[in-house]
Batch of 3 targets.
Target 1
Amino acid sequence: MKSPTLLKLEQQFLKSLRTDKNSPWLESIIIPAHQRNTEEVLDLYLNRARTRTIAPFHEIFPACEAIMGSELFDRFVDDFYLHSHCDNVTVLDYANSFMDYLTVVKPEFFEPLIPTIEEQTIDWSRLLIDVALTEWRLRRAETAPTLRKNNPEELLHRLRVKKLHGYRPKLEHGTRIPFSCYCLVPLTKAHKCPIEPRHLIAGERKPYLIWRKPDNQVEIRTISEDEARLLRSCNGHLSVTAILQEETHFGFSREETLDRISEAIKLGWIVSLFDPMSYQ
């Protein structure tokens, strides 16, 4: 349990990060080094905290920055930081909150962006939320601890042993299967080459797979709605038997679904078949 003084210190520090005025209480407990005043020392600490949490946004959201332009992106980030209610001063916590901020951002912030692309009216709020969310998911997939413990051959053997159909298939940690009306595939390479909004205009809703490949490279790829439904069932809660039964309602025989699960294992999408009894 934190002491009241330490808790107050954290609260006052966070409050000062989000306002233009430093906390008098913080200034009162700082003992500055020779030839420095209290306000100067506190500003140094606050600026360092802001830099450590906000500077990585350029790395996490390169496509957002490319679409907005650096000047407008910095304006978004500064306004977000000022109004953020995130209580943890960490990069990932702030980046996670950035998507929430984009849903309530002031309309005038989007005025510098052109209203149409190739004769299509652009809903910039919707586009940027999708882009930011996808870039956040890419980072999560990249940094999540791996679940790969067995090679595909071992998993395929388990899958074909009928008595093991109580096992539950799981995808790699950090894998996400979003739907979007935008083309998300180019965002995989946003760190390497500039992204333009016209690259993202798709026009129809599609499911995507965001996953970390066996070589640890993160990828976005389009998948079919049948693949999306099957992979979403591989969440560690449904057994192979339950998935086989569920897919019969979509016109797939049990053998066909077994083949589809086998293919997902070979592709590296399904990385685990665990025994729920082992947790008891």
Target 2
Amino acid sequence: MKKTAAHAADAEWNIAVPPDLDEDSRLFLASRGAKEVSFPLLVRKAASLVILSSLTREVKEEVRRSGLSQEELDGFIADGIAWARSPVAAARGSAA
């Protein structure tokens, strides 16, 4: 996805969390030698994981309802991978 000038910098969030989540997060980060600046990365990873999990669940449900066979699904996946590795996809990626 291409970033516009308006979205080039990180957005500032001010979030409130329950005290137990704050403490658990600090303990988790400290146990891995992380510094306080690791909070934004932790939030980004958590948000990405929630979004990816939700989209994955939705796609799996759509595929299940579509009636595609495993063979058809494997073919679509193979086609997508082949396209992503193609010069056309690489050219589009460098233009983004």
Target 3
Amino acid sequence: MHLKILPFRNILIKKDFKIISWICLFIVFSIFMTMTLGIIREYRNYKYMVNYFEEASKEYNKEDLIKQSRGSVTGYLKHMGRGSSLAQMIIIPLVLSILLFSEEKRNRTFEALSSMPFTKYEIFFNKLVLCFITIVIANLINIIFLFIVKGINKELGMLYSMKDIIFWSIRYVYIVLAFLSFFTLLSTITGTTASFVVISIIFLVFPISFPLLLKLNLGIWGVNSSILMEIEKIGFRYNMFSIFDVNRLTLSIFIPLTIVFFIISIILFYKNKTERSGETLEFEKLEEFFTVGVTICTSLLFGLLSSDFSIGFGIDKFYLAIGYIVGGVLGYLAAYFSIKLNRVKG
């Protein structure tokens, strides 16, 4: 591995910045539309209540209204906004991984870079540095904007503190980086954009969906396992979506996990072979695991769905068995042809 610990290369950063420059603008816009507008929306509600009481000539306590509105803003920031803001924290790192890794493989950019005086460590490192700078700058722009607004509009400024805004931004960066490490890891084991997106979705929901799928199938066969129930609870409690609940426990899990994911990613990226770019998976040893995994999951899913046809006939296990066979065959064929069709001819 390259001896330099921090090998900044301006050429690589400039090259990648041309690819993701619009992402920075999108992050700024998305933060404004979710977090900043959420504060402004609460300010409008506050002004509406003030105008209502004044027009109706009713007595009201302005300090109480401000305190109530500030409490709403604090709660809004604490829970990282609404669903749209949570979704963007997944979509943004997903898109960054697609543009900087999956699409680079599709366009054979890594193959071209391999003939230049850049190590894989330098290529990988500068991509991560650029992602971090992009995410941080986008949040700094929003912080500066709200700081200026706080000075211009004193009444609006009373509804939030800069401490809350900065804390929100730190959590935002932490969550996005955690998802970025997760998606970056998956991008190093996949060779196409399509396979990366599909496998990313599968692994996002796998800790939740697989234990549930297994439990429902065993339930039809009359098997109730307390161990399986515990696995299901763990799956619901500890998955990538758990990171949105920022507390000491999740921090103690996801901060080390993010670092581990990035370390594994650089190791796998180092082992990526340019001649396998364009294949479903970067590593041939994973193909069997991928095929078996898809076969088992589709078999369980089709078995569960097919058992619904037996309602009123009392032969659910027959339909379940048929579903297992059909689902298993379809899953195997889907995985097999996905690998075969993307096989690079050498």
